[in-house]
Give the backbone structure.
Amino acid sequence: MPEAKPIKITETILRDAHQSLIATRMPTELMLPIIDKMDKVGYNSVECWGGATFDASLRFLKEDPWDRLRKLRDGFKNTKLQMLFRGQNILGYRPYADDVVDSFVEKSIANGIDIIRIFDCFNDLRNLQEAVNATNKIKAREGRGHAQVALSYTLGDAYTMEYWIDMAKKIEEMGADSICIKDMAGLLVPYKASEMIREMKAVTKLPIQLHTHYTSGVAGMTYLKAVEAGVDVIDCAISPFAMGTSQPATEVMVETFKGTPYDTGYDQNLLAEIADYFRPYRDECLANGLLNPKVMGVDIKTLLYQVPGGMLSNMVSQLKEQNAEDKYYDVLKEIPKVRKDLGEPPLVTPSSQIVGTQAVFNVLMGERYKMATDQTKDVLRGKYGQTVKPMNQEVIDKVIPGEERITCRPADLLSNEMEKLESEMAEWKQQDEDVLSYALFPQVAVDFFKYRQAQQEKVDPAKADVKNGAYPV
């Protein structure tokens, strides 16, 4: 038997699990009562912030995401808190200037984040360097902060084992504290995971974490083989919000490794109490339609077409709107061609939406790239960064003829933004963090600031007579 190496688990129930199953709609008030029990488990970390939680908190839940983070930090006395960070895009959908990235990293750590998982939709490491540097600066100064660089896992000619090994070496060189293999579509199969972990471990001393989704049905087996191959941490979700498009269930993984060298030592009775707490909420979400049973099963098309589940459903709804559902298989055939034209990027937000939408246009128009979306043009211009393979020159000439393309790191072309942003939203600022909320989602943030002000002043803005300055309380 190998020597004891307990597998560590990152719990995703407070972020990716509900983002994947119920569109990130879990409110803070539902999280707080169970924190005390979650804090006793001994998790490697609890992923609870970043990703889509920021946008959803402001837009749909009318909550301040910074306030959520502070409340979670107050409750978790013994457990590290983790967030997901989209490199130079932070949590938004465009590249931001370095001063915004620096400020966001600083405020995230100051409000309670320990581990920042940083990824880029093209795996362009230049788009990750600033966030890593910012985290390392704070670590050197305060002894807090951990920069984890995530590689978006995908399949294709360019993504050989040599590619992944080379990336692992580069991540260590850029000053990251750990590596995450981020398999957002559930494409990593068990024996490939085993090979990948062993090969990476041979070239880097950094801890390796594996993140996958159950979408294609193989995730539990993938974790088993990865753990045997020496992976350090796996991402799991407590059972009521596990499986389907979420992660493998925490309790199942704990039981799998019980009595082996990988035994977590977690208390199943404690995990059962946590599961009991979330189960009524899951039932409520099923009853009100927030949790669609469709996302709870296995979608084998994910492996057949190498397309993430969310991208497929997006494509189906686009075809439905155009009364062109009969073109489904034509679009499926077109997706890999468009992806190749655009340099074979991993299919993850936002590249998955860009490739999928362009494939739909190509099929419906009857001529490839007769019409290109603004985002497709920006990919071809180099605004999102560098792809692994060169883009198709014929497509570039057709879509953006004669335009100069960006070859440097896209953020190098951006001037500092913080001062300008602060002056634009000065009337709403109640804390420094508000400037960052505004930077990421200007309109959504202002709507939230108005709502917050109305709550503080006990005013119902819907009933206000703004013209005459009469505000019923």
The beta strands are 8-11, 45-50, 81-85, 115-118, 146-152, 178-183, 208-212, 233-236. The first helix runs from residue 16 to 22. The CA atoms of residues 340 and 391 lie 7 Å apart. Residues 469-473 have pLDDT under 50 and may be disordered.
